[in-house]
Amino acid sequence: MLFSTTDFRYSKIRHNLSLLVGVMVLSSFSYGVKAEEVVAENVDHIEVLKSLITTDVVKGLQAYGEEDVFQIVLGVCNDKNKGVMDSDFATLDAQWKSELGQAEQPAIARALTNPLSLRATQMQAESDGLFLEIFVMDAKGLNCGQSAATSDYWQGDEAKWQKTYLVGAEAVFIDEPEISDKLGVWVSQVNLSIKDKKTGAALGAVTYEINLTELERRKKQGVELF
């Protein structure tokens, strides 16, 4: 796998350092420059960034989905939510959004403390700034695990779920590189179906927001990712 499972306390320390580096990068980013202007000026570089998400990188990310915690928790989510109807999505989403930024967050707290969310948080921390966000969606497109609270609870109306889970167990959908407004680095979301190891069918989907600036740096230094 990509990262070793070291003492979680040290993972948190590295995670905090990664966030500090991100803030430093942001402070050096040209003030007042719009993201779309940066993209227009870096067409050639964008092609280089897109090439960083190689087949080996995708296979490495897919391997995470084979872990028991992904397989088991997704199975539980699918069983729990199989009775959820299309008409329920708006209500569930509204409840989630109403808790964002509030002192009391019962639904969000439950989601962020399940084993899959804890694993996603650990993976992000241990990536030393490579993973900026990880979230897992079940067969309904509902959040099943995440490294941090997402802005939406239901992802089923977005390409990250529609172009992965609905397509099939091997589906991969990679978003175009863009500048992160928060960190001032190049990012891309790599979206993958998660395959049920027992049946071979699609079990859910996962989104990895990748720090392409960091990935490019590691490639130049010859760091082996997987």
For the structure shown, list the relevant keywords.
alpha+beta; Beta-Lactamase; six-stranded antiparallel β-sheet
Q: By CATH's scheme, which homologous superfamily applies? A: PAS domain
CATH architecture: 2-Layer Sandwich
Mean of residue pLDDT? Answer: 86
| Low-pLDDT ranges | 1-33
Annotation, overall tally of beta strands? 6
Please report the first level of CATH classification, the CATH class: Alpha Beta
Structural class: alpha+beta
- Major sheet description: 6 strands, antiparallel
Order of helices and strands: HHHHHHHHEEHEEEEH
How would you characterize the overall build of this protein?
The protein is of the alpha+beta class. It has one domain (8-220): Beta-Lactamase, CATH 3.30.450.20. The protein has ten helices and six strands; from the N terminus they run ααααααααββαββββα. The chain has helices spanning 8-28, 35-40, 43-51, 55-64, 68-81, 89-99, 106-112, 115-126, 159-162, 212-220, and strands spanning 131-137, 143-146, 172-174, 178-179, 186-195, 202-211. Strands 1, 2, 3, 4, 5 and 6 form a six-stranded antiparallel beta sheet that branches. β4 (178-179) and β5 form a beta hairpin. α1 packs across α8. The longest helix has 21 residues, at 8-28. The termini are close together. The model is unreliable at 1-33 (pLDDT under 50).
